[in-house]
Amino acid sequence: MLALAACDGAAPKFKSTDITGADYGKRLELTDHNGKARRLEDFRGKAVVVFFGFTRCPDVCPTTLADAAQAMRQLGPDAERVQVLLVSVDPERDTQEALAKYVPAFDARFLGLRGDLEATRRAAREFKVYFEKRPGKSPQDYSIDHSAQSYVLDPQGRLRLFVRHDRIAEDLAPDLRVLLQ
Prior knowledge:
Blueprint: H1 2-10, E1 17-18, E2 29-32, E3 37-39, E4 47-53, H2 60-75, E5 82-88, H3 96-102, E6 111-114, H4 117-126, E7 131-134, E8 143-146, E9 150-153, E10 159-163, H5 168-180
Parallel strand pairs: 4-5, 5-6
Antiparallel strand pairs: 1-10, 2-3, 2-6, 4-9, 7-8, 9-10
Helix pairs in contact: 2-5
């Protein structure tokens, strides 16, 4: 009985879905909104929150980024040990300049990442994210359907959590505290 209690006490308790050991979310190679080539390895030592979205998203993307910014405020000084990444699923319109204006408006520490369409597809496949361009009234007036979850990697670079977009506000800060312990 004591052995079972000891094992139970050792496992971290997350609010989000624990996907520790998942065989994806290991690679990401894109360019940040400052023009610097980035890989997940660049952020070792920090917990990393990865979200796929786009700057012209009318609802889920700005809400997710606002909720992530609130989580960073809740973390206080520990927020310096977290990196939030928005991976653009709209390489056509989300230029380096557009991402540089949009993403840091939520929190100056956040980074927007982009690549050409093939690099975006590779990143999305690696994180099992769906995205598809939907035509609008004109060629430039289109939308992007996309998966809305976020992923959290621990400071060692291991994929640990799947966070539903509607749970970021409630779950992200407490889960990051556990990972940063």
